[in-house]
Specification:
mainly alpha; 22 helices; globular; cell membrane
């Protein structure tokens, strides 16, 4: 097998830049299906503490309250019980980073040291968020708050009070995120299953011919099905009604999983899957999917509490972890961006740190795209900020209202494209600095624009300098895992040893689950490695064969070995 290192550097750079057309980078997608949930949650979670602080005459503390309020952006895809278990950890992580930043600000006036600490915090945030798969908005919001606090004037004795304000706002955010459970207690899991059904319907209505388009559709369906199973696994029903509800959702996911089989398109089946998805998104009863013959009365899902939430976090920090090069990139890029901003005489170097942290994606190609989106969105956002700044300075209520409107629009536009979200994110971030101190608009605009350009440029540069050479090894490991999972699946279908003539429902569930996860992780590993500019040639034919065989085995398992369900 050849190595990408044998290719001239000029060719590597051409290969990196070629798949990045501006039209594709700036294309607007449809709105996300639940974009309004984080948007409304963060608006309410911000409004409540801001108005309380306004009544107390301490609106200057709003920046500390934002450490807790912005946690309302997280965990909207989780069932409510899992959300209750996870959000306190998000708040704790947010306040931990904020606390380190505040202590640093109180102990030193050196901007050099403050930038270094902010960069290290950004790297830790990135690694832990990726390991925990916390989902959007990921590490960026955590880093934004911590980096900002690292440059606030601070006294050591005031830090406990400031963190208490953030903790109180975090409690409000938790209540806001749990409040919809009173109206629709099973909403998140119904949405997750609906997504799997919609993706499966698209696959069944498409062309049966193998090719890149069908391969991408099959992967999207496998990922949606796998996400639905993970969501249902987080449920811990303790009543007969809860068990029955989860069983009905499991049957629906099985039908979506069966769509992964190759063969001709089936418009009738696609229409049925879409109808079930529409019923799930409404508030009516669960749609009924006929169980497969021979199903038994146990759940195919692991027992409640299976798995340990700390294990992936500890694994991400061990030597050899594929996340460590990503963390190194973030640390180097954020530090270089902040120091370059200082050298340019900018008064807000933490903006460059945050920009560099936001630019870093799974690989160099995606980071390049994100940098372009960040720069263009920020430029438009600065124009908008200049227009609305006079309105925000009409009084404290006007400032709060302007920030809330920008927050809502940020979440709405972010689902369409990252650059569109930055059009509203930029003025929101600048307006939040008005809570603590008012500065001339020209200074804010100039500093923000320079920091954005510096942060984006050095973020991409650090991706080129700090190469992720473990990405290729991750593909090899993913191929080996997929091969093992496929062999287990073949043994199960053939009823060979060690399963015997009648494999148990739990064993069938385990094999199917491991095969599905192996295929999803294989595609993720390939996507990451294919965007790295200094990487050996990828085994594309082996990957294509493994994916095709794996998806056919999943479909065969679904047809020949019906999984068990809850009573």
């Amino acid at each position: 097998m050849g190595t990408y290192r044998d290719v001239p550097v000029q060719s590597r750079l051409r290969d990196l830049v070629r798949p990045l057309p501006v039209k594709g980078v700036l294309r607007l997608r449809p709105f996300g299906d639940i974009w309004h949930k984080p948007a409304l949650s963060v608006v309410i979670a911000t409004a409540v503490p801001s108005l309380v602080l306004l009544l107390l005459g301490r609106l200057d503390l709003a920046i500390y309250a934002s450490a807790g309020s912005l946690c309302a952006l997280y965990c909207h895809g989780l069932p409510y019980a899992a959300r209750l278990r996870t959000l306190p950890w998000v708040v704790a992580g947010m306040l931990a980073g904020t606390g380190v930043a505040l202590v640093t600000a109180s102990l030193t006036d050196s901007a050099l040291i403050r930038v270094a600490v902010a960069a290290l915090i950004a790297a830790v945030h990135r690694v832990l968020c990726d390991a925990a798969r916390i989902g959007p908005p990921g590490n960026v919001v955590l880093t934004f708050v911590a980096a900002t606090c690292a440059f606030l004037p601070q006294r050591l004795g005031d830090i406990p009070g400031h963190l208490a304000v953030g903790l109180g706002a975090g409690a409000v955010a938790l209540l806001v995120c749990l409040a919809p459970a009173l109206l629709r207690p099973h909403g998140p899991e119904r949405v997750a299953v609906a997504r799997a059904l919609e993706s499966a319907a698209l696959l069944r209505s498409g062309t049966p011919e193998e090719g890149p388009a069908r391969g991408a559709a099959r992967h999207d369906t496998a990922a949606a099905v796998n996400a639905a199973w993970h969501t249902l696994a987080l449920l811990r029903p303790r009543s007969a009604a809860g068990l029955h509800s989860r069983a009905a959702l499991e049957r629906l996911v099985e039908h979506a999983e069966a769509a992964l089989a190759g063969g001709r398109a089936d418009p009738a089946e696609a229409a049925r899957l879409r109808e079930w998805a529409r019923a799930l998104r409404r508030r009516g009863p669960l749609p009924t999917a006929a169980p497969e013959p021979g199903a038994c009365a146990l759940s195919r899902l692991p027992a409640a509490g299976a798995g340990c939430g700390l294990r992936p976090l500890l694994s991400a920090l061990r030597p050899g972890s594929p996340l460590l090069p990503i963390g190194a990139r973030v640390a180097v890029g954020c530090a270089l961006a902040g120091w370059a901003s200082m050298a340019a005489g900018v008064g807000h170097p933490y903006w460059a740190v945050v920009t560099a942290a936001a630019v870093f994606q799974a690989n160099t190609s995606l980071s390049w795209q994100r940098a372009l989106q960040r720069v263009l969105g920020s430029l438009a956002g600065l124009v908008l900020f200049t227009a609305i700044l006079p309105v925000s300075r009409l009084g404290p209520l006007a400032l709060i209202a302007t920030v809330l409107v920008c927050q809502f629009l940020t979440e709405a536009a972010m689902t369409r494209n990252y650059w569109a979200g930055n059009v509203f994110l930029t003025p929101m971030a600048l307006l939040m600095t008005e809570f603590a101190v008012r500065q001339p608009a020209s200074v804010l605009v100039a500093d923000r624009w320079l920091d954005t350009c510096v942060g984006a440029a050095l973020g991409v540069l650090s991706c080129l300098l700090v190469t992720n050479r473990r990405a290729g090894g991750r593909v090899d490991r993913a191929l080996r895992r997929a091969a093992r999972a496929q062999e287990d699946a073949r043994d199960l279908v053939a009823a060979r040893e060690p399963y015997g003539a009648a494999p148990s429902a739990s064993e069938a569930a385990r094999v199917r689950r491991e095969l599905a996860e192996a295929l999803v992780q294989l595609r993720e590993a390939v996507d990451v490695a294919s965007g790295e500019w200094w990487q050996r040639a990828l085994p594309e034919q082996e990957v294509a064969l493994a994916e095709r065989e794996g998806h056919h085995l999943l479909a065969e398992l679904a047809a020949r070995l019906p999984v068990a369900r809850a009573a």
